[in-house]
Amino acid sequence: MAEPLLDVKNLQFRFRGQDQDVVQDVSFRVGRNETLCIVGESGCGKSVTALALMGLLPKDDVRFGGGEVRFDGESFAPSDQGRIAQMRGDRMAMIFQEPMTSLNPAFRIGDQIAEAVERHRQCGRAAARARALEMLAKVGIPAPEQRLDEYPHQLSGGMRQRVMIAMALANDPELLIADEPTTALDVTVQAQILDLIAELQAETGMGTIMITHDLGVVAEIATDVAVMYAGQVVEYGPAEAIFNDPQHPYTIGLMASVPTLTGPRRRLSTVPGSVPSIGQMPEGCRFSSRCPFAAPVCGTRPPLRDITPGHRAACHFAPLELHLERSA
Ligand SMILES: Nc1ncnc2c1ncn2[C@@H]1O[C@H](COP(=O)(O)OP(=O)(O)OP(=O)(O)O)[C@@H](O)[C@H]1O
Ligand code: SF4
Ligand SMILES: [Mg+2]
Predict the structure, then answer these.
(1) Is the CB of 251 under 6 A from ligand 2?
(2) Which residues line ligand 1 (CB under 6 A)?
(3) What domains can be seen in the chain, in order of their start residue?
(4) Which residue among 16, 41, 48 is best mutated to probe the pocket of ligand 1, counting the most ligand atoms within 8 A of its Cβ?
(5) What integer pLDDT is reported at residue 271 of this predicted model?
């Protein structure tokens, strides 16, 4: 099998002062032209996973376990955040959950994009500014020449998110990580932004990791899905398999609220109870405190294993149908 663009193996780390891993044995792959959606409740480790892949975790505050991040065939130790950040250059880009945290309110947006372009391409200011203009037009910002000279506060939330996308994509990254890029936006703007990312992906063949709470979005854009619970990937596979044949009790709980493709969008999280905090995770299966099928064997950790080729779940009883039939 051809080497994927990004191959994450057993990513594992905790923050200083924590006695359990906040991200544990997380593995997934993303190929060119593919979109991996990462879903899971608030606090399950989606954003910190993304930050680790960008080399943005402050290494003094984080203790890494083993694991490996391979990007385009080159291997990195996750603990070497500096080297990952250096390699990332303009090859990987991220759209952050909150656009205002990554736009500097004191600088005109055209200058901010041009600066990112200049830094990575080592071109002159005029060429960088021309690229900034081109990108603003591409992300659908009306009157882009005028907008170049405006400050972030002069733009609406939707326009700011477009600026973030323009900035992230200005250097034609091979991998885009989008962390809830549309959560703060109204539904129409959400749809436009997703269309835009899809369009740019079709044009450049970039791989995309989309972090979202919205299963409607996942149904629309994912080629693959990783379901995270309490810092672990509990189910992983092609989108079709996850939607049509979910195998982990947590995924099944989430899917209970799945909208139809044509119905209204709903956010996930209808599983009763809440995620235990770090330091209070049960031994063995971290989902056991909320799982309707929990049994003594769940006191040992279920490995993420193939249920059908390429469709993996971390549950002792998967495939569940089989188990339920046997115990009937
Ligand atoms: N710098 C930090 N120091 C200590 N703990 C942290 C730090 N950053 C994040 N965490 C903790 O790590 C866990 C995972 O956080 P993360 O932001 O990745 O969640 P998330 O899945 O992105 O949630 P959301 O859907 O709300 O964005 C949380 O318990 C969070 O409190
Ligand atoms: S391993 Fe046990 S507790 Fe965990 S999801 Fe499966 S049945 Fe539930
Ligand atoms: Mg987050």
Answers:
(1) no
(2) 15, 22, 40, 42-48, 61, 97, 278
(3) 6-91+175-275 (3.40.50.300), 102-172 (no CATH)
(4) 48
(5) 75
Helices 157-169 and 187-204 sit at what angle, rounded to 10 degrees?
10
Beta strands at 23-30 and 207-211: parallel, antiparallel or unpaired: unpaired
Residues 6+ apart with CB under 8 A from 131: 113, 114, 117, 121, 123, 170
Return the best residue to mutate from 14, 24, 46 for the ligand 1 pocket (most ligand atoms within 8 A of CB).
46
What integer pLDDT is reported at residue 326 of this predicted model? 52
Average pLDDT of the chain is 89
Torsion angles phi and psi, residue 208, rounded to 5? -135, 135
Distance CA 290, CA 274 (A): 8
List Cβ neighbours of 49 (8 Å cut-off, separation of 6 or more). Answer: 11, 23, 26, 38, 228
Average pLDDT, integer, range 128-146? 93
Sign for the CA dihedral angle at 208, 214, 215, 221 comes to negative
List helix spans (H) across the chain.
46-54, 81-88, 99-102, 109-121, 125-138, 144-148, 157-169, 187-204, 215-221, 239-244, 249-255, 320-327
Cβ atoms of residues 201 and 208 within 8 Å: yes
Q: Whose CA is nearest to atom 1 of ligand 2?
A: 315
272-300 mean pLDDT: 92
pLDDT of residue 269: 42
Q: What are phi and psi of 232, to 5 degrees?
A: -120, 150
59 pLDDT more than 90: no
Q: Which amino acid is at 98?
A: E
**Omega within 30 of 0 (cis) for the link into 319:** yes
Q: How far apart are the first and last CA of the chain?
A: 40
Q: Is 288 in the pocket of ligand 2 (CB under 6 A)?
A: yes
